[in-house]
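Subject: Protein record for review, amino acid sequence with backbone structure tokens
Why sent: The fold of this protein is of interest and is recorded here as tokens.
Enclosed: The protein record, placed directly beneath this head.
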Amino acid sequence: MVDQQHLKPLAEDGFFSDDRGSRVPPAHTVARGQLRDDEQFYTGKIGSDLAATFPMPVTRELLNRGRERFDIYCAVCHGYTGNGDGMIVQRGFPQPPSFHEQRLRDAPIGHFVDVITNGYGVMYSYASRVAPEDRWAIAAYIRALQLSQHAPASDADPATWQNGRARPPGAPKSDSPRNSDGRPSGRPLPPSTND
């Protein structure tokens, strides 16, 4: 066993007619753990159409995870409220569209997953940085942001209003407090550019 016969990667070998020791994997070979048979989950599409529904239930946990991932990966460009006014934009990077434009409010949810996966315009792909389940969580949070900015006042129960913010009965005063500009509180203010 110690002196077992083996080939060095990409070394020449006379066993095959092309003298190559390394072999090309057979067509349609899938590495262990890499089978992606749920097209909607991995691409945000069903066939060639963007998915209009979520492949999993949208829960509070999913929205919280989406908010966390959005704050990490998306807010630097899109801003914490989705208006396209993130810190990178304030420093000169091209402004992305606001998530509150009618075009994006009407877009199927698969659009956001597809853009996160493949990139769009100057936005590069986040496929290697954001796991598929987190892409859907971010898309759910984007949809919640859109609804929060365009919901009629009649959707809120007046009995739950306190300090201008609606809370469900028994909810803590704040899950994660935010400043008036949408940034989570407790984070330092950006350096002043008025020098």
Observations:
- The beta strands are 45-46, 49-50, 161-162, 165-166.
- The chain has a mean pLDDT of 84.
- The chain has six helices and four strands.
- The radius of gyration is 24 Å.
